[in-house]
Specification:
The chain is about 45% helix and about 15% strand. By secondary structure, it is of the alpha/beta class. It has 2 domains: about 280 residues, Rossmann fold (3-Layer(aba) Sandwich); about 80 residues. A 7-stranded mixed beta sheet has the order 3-2-1-4-5-7-6, sandwiched between helices. A 3-stranded antiparallel beta sheet has the order 8-10-9. Strand 1, helix 2 and strand 2 form a beta-alpha-beta unit. Helix 1 runs parallel beside helix 2, helix 9 crosses helix 11 and helix 10 crosses helix 12. The longest helix has about 35 residues. It is globular, with a radius of gyration of 22 Å. The chain starts with 9 loop residues before the first helix and ends with a strand. Bound molecules: S-adenosylmethionine. S-adenosylmethionine binds next to strand 2.
Length: about 400
């Protein structure tokens, strides 16, 4: 993926970077124990692409990753069969999708285009998925109607062995959520009418995301593992506000942790990409050249990181009796707070330096650079932590 292909739509570059990075981690993990993996792009496009070869679309990105992971897994002795389904309603876009898929070489991943409206095709989609195989659903519409509301997604959410990445159009919902004629639609999204009149924009976004994710999770079947969720903000390239959020749903604690590990890295990519976009805009406005930002060091985002809050949270979780903190515990903490893994790591190290906590399993914590609590140690059971008396 080349950032130059995304000038003027840097938010799509971030979305695609997230999709590509997460899919690669996911497929390489899932492929170790699944024989078949399916991928469904429910709103495929192509849409606003900058290249004729469609390499800057989720269609090509997902296919390239599936192929790469299939080869990577095969080197590990795992023969995994990947297949993909791409749904698109627009006639002209569908024709481009169809010919793009048809023009690929013979030994590529098995991929099928499907023409029509997503919500009308839900039964066909589920039939194509079958009941058993792991399926990743990418739900990336341009709006919310008959797309991201819970009644629309319910049949998919009730399917086991599935994960979801859903584009949540915050910008639209911010504007429309209190219009009385849209009350029914808002209830379908949030489960209730939200009163956000006293909230700051930041609080409103957090509240929307909490309610939407709770409502998504309430749609699952009562049997089997529960859905867990996390989300990523996709920021406006030039303004200090979110354009949309990517909501992630899984039934695996490891999924949440891996998604957050990817987000930790994406933060830096997003900062760099926005800094470049803002620099380009300044140069266009003033006509003055600036030095490239490529070599600029990007510092940790102190602004959004409330160290004392995270430290207090750790202290509330720990006791004088040692307790293991592994993938499951980190997934729960992430779900509860929406903080980054690095937030937890930094706060734990500060508490350690202040003599307030101890990682019993870390022989020499001073030597560690970032992983002050290794949640993947001991086969994901993690390390034993305690609060000092
Ligand atoms: C945001 S774009 C998808 C972009 C693509 N996922 C990517 O990242 O490259 C949404 C696409 O969904 C299509 N679309 C809109 N409503 C739809 C519907 N009800 N069913 C299926 N496709 C739809 C649009 O024509 C458009 O191509």
């Amino acid at each position: 993926m080349n950032p130059e292909d995304y000038i003027g739509r840097e938010q799509t570059f971030i979305k695609h970077t997230l999709l590509r990075a997460y899919l690669e981690r996911l497929f390489m993990i899932i492929g170790r124990y699944e024989e078949k993996i399916s991928y469904v792009d429910c709103f495929a496009g192509p849409w606003q692409e900058g290249r004729n070869d469609l390499q800057d679309t989720s269609i090509a990105i997902s296919l390239n990753i599936m192929k790469k992971c299939q080869e990577g897994l095969s080197q590990l002795g795992k023969n995994v069969q990947f297949r993909a389904l791409y749904i698109e309603k627009d006639k002209e876009s569908f024709e481009r999708l169809k010919s793009f898929l048809a023009d690929r070489k013979e030994n590529e991943v098995d991929a099928k285009p499907l023409h029509g409206e997503f919500h009308e095709l839900r039964d066909d989609i589920l039939k194509w998925c079958g009941a058993k195989d792991f399926t990743f659903f990418f739900v990336d519409p341009t709006g919310w109607r008959e797309a991201v509301e819970i009644p629309t997604l319910r049949p998919l959410l009730q399917r086991h062995n599935s994960e979801f990445l859903i584009t949540f159009m915050l910008d639209f919902l911010r504007r429309f959520h209190c219009q009385s004629e849209l009350e029914e639609q808002m209830k379908e999204i949030f489960g209730e009418i939200l009163d956000t009149s006293e909230m700051t924009p930041e609080q409103r976004e957090t509240h929307f995301l909490r309610k939407y994710r709770e409502h998504l999770k309430s749609a699952q079947l009562k049997t089997g593992e529960s859905l867990l969720s996390a989300y990523s903000k996709i920021l406006h390239p030039l303004k200090k506000r979110t354009m949309y959020d990517m909501v992630y749903l899984t039934r695996k604690p490891l999924g949440i942790v891996v998604f957050m590990e990817v987000l930790g890295k994406l933060e830096y990519v997003q900062k760099d990409s926005r800094a470049q976009a803002q620099q380009t805009q300044r140069v266009e406005r003033t006509g003055q050249r600036e030095f490239s930002l490529k070599s600029t060091n990007i510092e940790y985002d102190e602004e959004n990181f409330k160290l004392s809050e995270v430290k207090d949270y750790w202290l509330s979780k720990l006791s004088c009796e040692p307790k293991q903190f592994g993938v499951k515990e980190f997934a729960d903490m992430i779900e509860e707070t929406d903080w980054f893994i690095s937030d937890f790591q930094i706060a734990f190290k500060k508490l350690h330096d202040e003599g307030k906590v101890e990682n019993i399993d870390a022989k020499n914590i001073e030597r560690r650079k970032t992983l002050f609590v290794n949640y993947k140690a001991n086969y994901n059971q993690g390390e034993s932590l305690k609060k000092m008396k």
